[in-house]
Amino acid sequence: MDPIRIQIPKELFTPAECKHYEEDARLDFLASGPDLYEFKEPLHWEADITNTGGALLVTGTVEGMATGSCSRCLESVDIPVTGEIEGYFLISPDAAAPEDMEGDEFEFLPEDKTIDMAPLIHAALLLEMPRILLCDEECQGLCPSCGANLNTTECGCAPEDEGASPSENPFAVLKNVTFDE
After folding, report:
1. pLDDT of 68-101, one tens digit each?
2. Which of 3-7, 73-77, 117-121, 147-151 has the lowest mean pLDDT?
3. What whole-number distance in Å separates Cα of residue 177 and Cα of residue 171?
4. In the predicted model, is pLDDT for residue 62 greater than 60?
5. If 22 and its partner were Cys, which of 46, 101, 105, 146 is the partner (CB 3.0–4.6 Å)?
6. Are strands 55-69 and 76-90 parallel, antiparallel or unpaired?
7. Alpha-carbon distance 119 to 73, whole Å?
């Protein structure tokens, strides 16, 4: 995602002032763990930047449609994504860190008085991506022998219990291992 820079206007350096921003942004792909999501349409984001007295609080949302692969059958799956944008920027470079925040929960406002929304949008999306993307909770996945999609076809492979030879499955030798405690 290209940088989305917001130049903070002079009026936002007054405590309790707030300003609303929104626009569309392009993000082609997002990697989340081993999964890769594609965004065919621009994401829409909006955020309010509020002066809290010594910092600028950024809150908002980002919405879009992501396309990924089902973890079981590898079919394409579209999922709507709505993430919560959050950011906290201390205005003064020599301000003390807030007592109730860890070091990774805030940043210092850069000298050029700009905030890049791209990392905040990226983080909001990552938090909303599923751990395991499934096309359906009842997805049967792929046959481990022939690779057929078991949701759309039945394969002719013998079930594991019906005499698959040990040479077909390299892990078959582990079938009779016992673990003593």
Report:
1. 999 999 999 999 999 999 999 998 877 777 777 7
2. 147-151
3. 11
4. yes
5. 46
6. antiparallel
7. 32
pLDDT tens track for 45-57: 999 999 998 899 9
Strand segments (E) across 106-162:
107-108, 114-116
In angstroms, how far is CA 139 from the centroid of its own chain?
Answer: 22
Six-digit token pair at 146?
Answer: 């022939």
pLDDT band per the 50, 70, 90 thresholds, residue 160: low
CA distance 60 to 124: 10
Here the tokens at position 73 are 């059958």
Taking the CA of residue 44 as centre, how many other CA atoms within 13 Å lie in the half-sphere pointing to its CB?
3
Retrieve residue 16's tokens.
Answer: 């309790």
Q: Is 118 exposed, middle or buried (0-12, 13-18, 19+ CB in 10 A)?
A: middle
Beta strands in 91-133 (DSSP E): 107-108, 114-116
Number of Cβ within 10 Å of residue 62's Cβ equals 24
Copy the structure tokens of residue 140: 């049967």
Is it the case that residue 165 has pLDDT exceeding 70? no
Paired with 18 in beta bridges are 50
Report the alpha-carbon angle 162-175-156, nearest 5.
Answer: 25
| pTM as predicted | 0.79
